[in-house]
Amino acid sequence: MSHISSFSPRNSGTAAIDARGLVKHFGDVTAVAGIDLLVPKGMIFAILGPNGAGKTTLMRMLATLARPDSGTASVMGHDLVSEPDAVRGAIAMTGQFASLDEDLTGRENLILLARLWGFKGRHARERADDLLAAFDLAAAAAKQVKAYSGGMRRRLDIAASLIVTPGVLFLDEPTTGLDPTARKDVWRMIRELALSGVTILLTTQYLEEADQLAARIAVIDKGRKIAEGTSRELKAQTGSGFVHVSLADASRRAAAAAVLEKELGVEIQQSAEGAELSAMAGSAEAANRALAALIAQGIELTDFSMGQPSLDEVFFALTGEKSRDAEEERMSA
Amino acid sequence: MSDAPPAVLKTVARPPKPSALSNALTFGWRAMLKFRHVPEQLFDLVMTPIMFTLLFTFVFGGALAGSTSDYLQFFLPGILVQTVVFNAVYSGMGLSTDLGKGLFDRFRSLPIWPLAPFAGLMVGDILRHLIAASIILTIGLLLGYRPEMGLPGVLGAFAFLVAIGFGMGWIFIVLGLLISTPTTVMTLGFTFLFPLVFASNIMVDPATMPDWLRAFVDVNPVSLMTTAIRGLMNGGGSWGDVGLALIAPALITAALAPVTLALYRRR
Ligand SMILES: Nc1ncnc2c1ncn2[C@@H]1O[C@H](COP(=O)(O)OP(=O)(O)OP(=O)(O)O)[C@@H](O)[C@H]1O
Ligand SMILES: [Mg+2]
Questions:
Q1: Which among A56, A62, A61, A53 is positioned nearest to A16, based on CA atoms?
Q2: Average pLDDT of B227-234?
Q3: CA 20 to 30 Å from B162, out of A215, B4, B31, B99?
Q4: Is residue A111 located within the same domain as residue A86?
Q5: Cβ distance B264 to B99 under 8 Å?
């Protein structure tokens, strides 16, 4: 794990989540292999990692749905293991897969939860209606959830976590599978909630999402935290981004790779077809120099771009290893 | 969405913690809503027993009991037992479906009485048993069935059905908690129940069965239940029969209610 952070207030009075050495095994699989997490109150904190990294398992432990095999944690000042009911009173979780009753209407789902929280009669109905209005679901209130679109379900599922304003809201991949508009809606809701003082721990597979929303990001892989910091800190570690170039003539690939390698001093990634190359650039100036050198060598480009590092690239930079996803894609390609 | 003011997401404090009973009733309300939204479930539950009643009465009734009306008189109380016992499988399936969808994760992350969701399932089951039994009894009455013991006998029989449904329900709740595929719950449930239901005195008098089978049929809890409910509805029974028939449901409840809680809390 890289220590790139200057932030470490080990003061539980301001911490919404304070977890130390959490471990969870499933048979032979170690889903979470010793993770520390410190999330101050009121922060949006993102856990970034590929499939199978252990994001859901970590979150389920913090939400009292799974018991840690070792390690300790407190959430809003309550110990996970000895005071699970107090933790449950202070949190809400929107899981990776919709936790709604498909047969009931959206409104009935919310009234059910409002009653379970202790709202009675008219108050439960009013709470449901307020939330439906806030999440733009009033028109679909009387429809069964099975008739909802993915975006509507996600909104209802988040609304269901806000019956009582939680101290900590857990959101497991809140935008996976949503179209760009629905994703932006969810992002806006998350920001508004954070403004009202709710601490939000979210997981995501997208660096962009973590970047857009979170004040701090923990990158996890294979059950371990491999880096933590602000988005800026992580990117600084990754380099400012990747330069991608497409060659007009694929046969000049070796020459182009040699030029880039010399200018940037890093390993060059080549596409299977060979006409595209990418490499991490330490800075924008380095990228400019590399492009100029290619042109000076008479290597013609059809396209070039300089992107934000993707999750794969962050991984590559942090571990020197391709993420398993990228690995699998390459193997199946 | 774009015009929703942030103010609507105002901070809402937690109301006083509701009682365990209130939690359980809320889940019962959910079970009632399911009847409204998925009335088909009732169709599944009553079609099989209705077919059984019609086929057995008219196809086999004459041969088995001399006349169709005598057979109906013998068969109807037993088919009520069969209906309730089979119904319990469906509630196990429902539970397995709910668990698979992450809905119970939401319930488990709430500060509520941990057994409340199961109490709610039971409320739903009891309603289902009562509705299905009423439909089948009505059809029986139309076909000429006459409960000798009158209304008190029928009410007693219904109370008895609720008790055995409650007892048998635990088996399938445990299966539902253990098995994540609803259809496997159904297959396993029926594999276990078919011999119990058919190797019983529901359809025929065991007098003509081979000795070894009769030995089983005589102690089969389903037979004991059938004997008891026949006594309640048709007369000629005793409270001892009822007591004997309730032993199995009572034992199952005592053994499996703690198992249910442990499985649900397992995390
Ligand atoms: N209930 C379980 N039983 C057995 N193995 C499990 C269970 N839950 C998770 N695992 C395993 O633990 C590892 C971490 O899984 P987890 O679901 O926490 O990952 P994730 O980061 O949430 O992945 P994804 O992005 O796909 O949601 C995986 O190898 C997974 O197969
Ligand atoms: Mg996950």
A1: A62
A2: 94
A3: B99
A4: yes
A5: no
Among A235, A250, A279, the domain-final residue is A235
Instruction: Judge if A153 and A244 occupy the same domain.
Output: no
Q: Ligand 2 mean position to A138 CA, how many Å?
A: 30
**Contact status, residue B256 vs residue B103, Cβ threshold 8 Å:** no
pLDDT tens readout for residues A149-178: 988 999 999 999 999 999 999 999 999 888
Residue among A97, A115, A164 whose CB faces B26 most closely: A115
Residues 192-211 of A with CB under 8 A from B: 192-193, 195-197
pLDDT tens per residue, range A13-72: 679 999 999 999 999 999 999 999 999 999 999 999 888 999 999 999 999 999 999 999
State the pLDDT confidence band at B2, using cuts at 50, 70 and 90: very low
Alpha-carbon distance of B133 to B169, in angstroms, equals 16
Residue A290 · residue A264 · CB < 8 Å: yes
What average pLDDT does chain A have? Answer: 86
Do A125 and A196 belong to one domain?
yes
Answer yes or no: do A220 and A249 share one domain.
no
- ipTM comes to 0.81
Separation of alpha carbons A219 and B72, rounded Å: 70
DSSP B16: P
- Classify burial at A199, counting beta carbons within 10 Å of its beta carbon; exposed 0-12, middle 13-18, buried 19 or more: buried
The pTM of this model reads 0.80
Q: Provide the residue type at B56 as one letter.
A: F
Structure tokens that stand for A162 in this block = 């806000």
Of A170, A142, A143, nearest to A157 (Cα)? Answer: A170
Question: What is the spatial distance between Cα A52 and Cα A48, in angstroms, rounded to a whole number?
Answer: 11
Q: Are residues A248 and A275 in the same domain?
A: yes
Residue B237 C-alpha, separation from nearest chain A C-alpha, in angstroms: 43
Residues of chain A with Cβ-Cβ distance to B8 below 8 Å are 130, 133-134
Please indicate, yes or no, whether residues A131 and A22 belong to a single structural domain of this protein: yes
Is the CB of A56 inside a 6 Å radius of any atom of ligand 1? yes
What's the domain range around A297? 239-308
Q: How far is the alpha carbon of A78 from chain B, nearest alpha carbon, in Å? A: 13
CA distance A48 to A311: 8
Q: Which atom of ligand 1 is nearest to the CA of A59?
A: 18
A163 Cβ under 8 Å from any chain B Cβ: yes
pLDDT band at B42 (very low <50, low <70, confident <90, very high): confident
- Domain assignment present for residue A252? The answer is yes
Instruction: Say if residues A246 and A74 touch (Cβ distance below 8 Å).
Output: no
Q: Is A315 part of any domain?
A: no
Cross-strand partners of A24: A32
- Our count of domains for chain A comes to 2
**CA dist., res. A205 & res. A53, Å (int):** 10
Question: How far from A123 is each of A158, A256, B31, B140, B193, CA to CA, in Å?
Answer: 20, 68, 21, 46, 45
d(CA A113, ligand 2 centre) in Å: 24
